[in-house]
Design brief:
The protein is of the alpha/beta class. It is built from 14 helices and 16 strands. 36% of the residues lie in helices and 23% in strands.
Length: 363
């Protein structure tokens, strides 16, 4: 039994079942036993591998994208480059290295890393020790001071808690985590709640009966939109890259990953990564309602190709022929639309101030 499993069992026994959102939040973010508080989950020795860990090309191209957007912003003399959930700092290190081709951009930068895990913040400090730009760490996006900003969020939204519900013959019922007769954690449905119907997004209310629907609180994307589009004196942009779907619909996408394999989400709370697919249509609606302009979504493959990843791969192979096979393998993993690749499952969406107009590689 994991330490968090014991804590959750006792909490459910005394206070009742936990909504899926609360369960997910505790599994990932519990300050002592939560997944991100206790481990570095990245790479071969961890539980999963993200695009920046697959190839330097990913972060380099995002750095060049940010530099191009800075130019569209009018080249402000001070720019906050913000990353949400920065992992080991690999993406930012690669982005800053690529940005050296535009010295004025690097001179304008201060880098702000929004990270809640002290362990991962330590990894980021090691990775970025020689970055050559001002660095700051924050627990929340709201702690970054106002000013012109570009925000990067790679595989961040998928870890934000989801609510789940089912439309039954007796009304909407929230999906919860409870205790089975044998004492194990189990999924169940709460009693019908008339107020739940108003919480279910309008796009999901006509989903087939007895199908699970899921959604995230829109507060995150509203705050993000306000950050980059709420001040006409300093228009900005945010880039969101994650796996998910472009049309809202019913379906259970909650998943656990442990040791690079799918696992039971209830089997070892706090010891497996919990995520759910991102509803990009919902993100777009919320951002537009908050006054931002939405760009995309595109598949990751299309976005990276528009940014020139094939040419960058050719450059790397020419400079290091012995690594050509590894570079080709990384390129395929980033672009392949099949089950073993990220090219189609992962989508790219930007949220920006309308004053910026079309954005590089997205319009």
């Amino acid at each position: 039994m994991s330490p968090l499993a014991d804590l959750l069992r006792r909490r459910i026994a005394t206070a009742g079942p936990l909504p899926v959102a609360d369960y997910m939040s505790l599994c990932l973010g519990h300050p002592e036993h939560g997944y991100y508080a206790t481990r570095d989950p990245f790479g071969a020795a961890g539980d999963f591998t993200t695009a920046p860990e697959i190839s330097q090309m990913f972060g380099e191209l995002l750095g060049l994208w940010a530099a191009a957007v800075w130019q569209q912003m009018g080249e402000p003399s001070s720019l906050r480059l913000i990353e949400l959930g920065p992992g080991r700092g690999t993406l930012m290190a690669d982005a800053l290295r690529a940005a050296r081709v535009l010295p004025a951009f690097r001179t304008a930068l201060s880098v702000h890393l929004v990270e809640t895990s002290p362990l991962l913040a330590g990894r980021q400090r090691d990775t970025l020790a020689g970055a050559g730009v001002p660095l700051a760490w924050h627990d929340d996006l709201g702690a970054v001071l106002p000013g012109p900003a570009i925000v990067l969020a790679n595989e961040f939204v998928d870890a934000l808690p989801i609510r789940q519900a089912v439309r039954t013959a007796t009304g909407w019922r929230e999906r919860v985590v409870t205790l089975a007769p044998n004492g194990r954690l189990a999924f169940d449905l709460a009693a019908p709640d008339p107020a739940l119907a108003a919480a279910v997004p309008a796009a999901l209310r006509t989903s087939p009966p007895d199908m699970i629907v899921e959604w995230r609180d829109e507060a995150f994307v509203r705050r993000l939109a306000a950050r980059v589009a709420g001040d006409r004196e300093s228009p900005g942009a945010a880039l969101i890259i994650d796996y998910g779907h472009t049309i809202s619909g019913a379906g259970d996408t909650l998943q656990a990953v442990r040791g690079h394999a799918f696992a039971d989400p209830l089997a070892a709370p706090g010891e497996a990564d919990l995520t759910a697919h991102v509803d990009f249509a919902a993100l777009a609606r919320a951002a537009a309602a908050a006054g931002a302009r939405v760009h995309g979504p595109l598949t990751q493959a299309e976005f990276l190709r528009r940014l020139g990843i094939d040419a960058r791969a050719a450059q790397l192979k020419a400079s290091a022929p012995a690594k050509a096979a590894a570079i080709d393998a990384a390129l395929a993993r980033l672009l392949d639309p099949g089950r073993t690749g990220m090219g189609a499952l992962f989508k790219v969406l930007a949220v920006a101030d309308p004053a910026l107009g079309p954005l590089p590689a997205l319009d």
